[in-house]
Design goal:
The protein has 127 residues and is mainly β. Helices cover 0% and strands 50% of the residues.
Length: 127
């Protein structure tokens, strides 16, 4: 089992920045692929970004490329999502997820591909 806890959400104006953290416990964090998803009100949960086990490869949905950066620190059992130039359409509950494995390019974009989930953190971007 892996327990994931997100933090760092909040309210920010459009054009601003926020950094999210996801701290893991319960198993070897370094042997996992980490992902970030988000769910806006009335919408399905969607993929945002993922990172492989050592942080050498990342994958992003098109709408956040160039604005968001996923990273990880295995010594701290933590994954991060730095969000810059935020837009109102980025408003959502953000979830981190973990998938056992090491992989190459972490092109895992479906919820069903992840085994463990955090409870989410709210990000609200005002116009």
């Amino acid at each position: 089992q892996v327990q994931l806890v997100e933090s760092g959400g909040g309210l920010v104006q459009a054009g601003g920045s926020l950094g999210l953290s996801c701290t893991a416990s319960g198993r070897d964090f370094s042997a996992t692929i980490m992902g970030w998803f988000r769910q806006a009100p009335g919408e399905e949960r969607e993929f945002v970004a993922s990172i492989n086990w050592i942080g050498s490869s990342t994958y992003y949905t098109d709408s956040v490329k160039g604005r968001f950066t996923i990273s990880r620190d295995n010594a701290k059992n933590t994954a991060y999502l730095q969000m810059n130039n935020l837009k109102p359409e980025d408003t959502a509950v953000y979830y981190c997820a973990a998938k056992p494995g090491i992989g190459g390019v972490p092109q895992y974009v479906r919820e069903q591909q992840y085994d463990f989930w955090g409870r989410g953190t709210q990000v609200t971007v005002s116009a």
